[in-house]
Write the structure tokens for this entry.
Amino acid sequence: MTAPVPAGDDLLRRWRILAASGEPELFEGALLIALLVDPAEDLDAARRAVAGLAERVRANPFGAGVDALRRVLFEEEGFRGDRESYDDPSNSSVAKVLARRCGMPITLSIVTVEVGRRAGVPVEGVGLPGHFVVGGPALGGAYLDPFDGGIVGDPEQLAGRLSSIFGAPVALGDDALRPDSPREILARVLLNLRRSWEKRHRWEEALSALDFSDALTPPDADRSRERGLLLLRAGRKDEGGALLERWAAEVGEDEAEAAARLVAAARGTGGEDAPASPRVFTLDEARALMPRVQEITAEAVGRYGKQPGEEERREVAEAWAKELMAMGLEIKGLWLVDFDSGAGYYCWKYPESELGHFHSYEEGFGGRLPLT
């Protein structure tokens, strides 16, 4: 019999218990996230489905190990990537992915890892900027891509796959190919889910995913800023404004002007009048805007240096941030902007001569990789 579906507060309590353990169990954590997507989800059905798939992998007469795993999941069952509704919130639910046999790369990878674990095939999740695959001892240095029907490739082929996502060749270092911990994988699922809800203006659901994230990993300044903006967009102006003011008081000197811009928006707007959600850019679209972005920023930098006092400099920075935010860019610091690609960020900081870097949603400026 299916266990009673927990209420919202009880679900968060259960999640906090799981998150407080040394290293949370990946599949069970993913099932709790599935309840965020659909509180009536039948988790026992998902557990039975994974157990049945693992049994078939162990008993497969046509091969063993990775070959059996690939045959059962991708040839016989037809697990595949959802290319039509990629960012739908349901694709962040492993229970929905198991029922429909399609999803996004990270949840398909969680299913693959869990089936492999139960079948004695040691594979691990590998998070890449804008993509997610499966590696580990059973693959011997190769990588399996559940989104592309379980194809197996080497690191060079992975770099080619990322190039197709970001629109330019990318350089992958060894650190980018390391397996992710369960905590890191669950944090990424929550980030994907939150962004799916944000795109649909489902602000309260996005805040519930953020509550899960804060229980899993301690919130940093960026996440505090994002919570403040979400509260504004949900119409909770007083809460959002107060949080953004606390955030602005804690950021470094280089970010103070951009922080002041957001606080000013919090004081004067709320609900649907809050700062607009950033747009999604292709690399060509982002690069086409760069001459104007560079022009606006260079002019602002020149005026900023000529101002006699802090208040005047802040006004220059606020005007710069306002103009670029109106173009759909995200302001991440003084003279530092990101273009949302839908799979991560193209990143530029004055006075760089071109838009030549990207980083994942989870990484900041320090985690940038070059577009080659």
